[in-house]
Amino acid sequence: MKKFAFLLIPFLLFPLHTNANETKVTKELKAAIIIDDFGGGTGGVRDFLEGQIPITAAVMPFTENSKAHAEWAHKNGFEVMVHLPMEPKRGKRSWLGPKPITVDLSKEEVRQRVEEAIKSVPYAVGLNNHMGSRAVEDEEIVRTIVEVAKEKNLFIIDSGTSPGTKFPEIAKELGVPLLKRDVFLDDISSSSYVRKQMIRLAKITEIKGRGIAIGHVGVTGKVCSVGIFQSTDEFKRRNIKIVPISELFAGELTQKHLVP
Ligand SMILES: [Zn+2]
């Protein structure tokens, strides 16, 4: 009897050595910051692409600078995504840029535009939507985009421009890795607002273990970059690592997704 009790002692003394606790101790907090609208806006292009924060560059296709910005980003070690313009419910047609995905297009036209868009942004490993509150609710359009993403081994980030988006359910159905944006950083153009939104990103990351923010390189690019750079100490203090977006997919990406 005594001998039996002795054998139990190590387990009573070290109850913390369970798998659950080990996971908790080693769990890394990771956040990704996608900067949209490269290829177009010039506001913060250099600040981000020559900066030290590993943002992910979402590049608009078919613009004068699509290729140059994608190559610049890649050369400096930044992850690149295609920022696919999609028709919104409100907004000017000119905000969409050339060859957007609109709901009047046939399935074949959508397919062709998505394939061309991917071609026009070298090094892209993923895709997110620019605007799109109308088109992301159209099941056939979204299905075509997700099918092409699957064929080209691109993951998808739902920018979250409509609560009625079909991206999550169709990506799940077709087995395409997808994550959703948590926070917009610069819907008000001031660096103090961006800092406030970065704190929101930090809090969400602390709760979920990972968080995704989207900012913009164009009109708000300067204040956005300043706000992000000013927040890096706070992220270090909270032990949150800012990483390229692909690092947030827990084991869902294979090698073929990560080779542009
Ligand atoms: Zn955009």
Describe this structure as you would to a colleague.
α3 (45-49) links the parallel β1 (29-38) and β2. With 260 residues, the chain is α/β, with parallel strands linked by helices. Strands 1, 2, 3, 4, 5, 6, 7, 8 and 9 form a 9-stranded parallel sheet that branches. It is globular. Helices cover 42% and strands 19% of the residues. It contains 11 helices and 9 strands. α5 crosses α6 (139-151) and α6 crosses α7. The termini are far apart. Bound molecules: zinc ion.
Short description, anyone?
This protein is of the alpha/beta class.
Labels describing this entry:
alpha/beta, 260 residues, 9-stranded parallel sheet, binds zinc ion
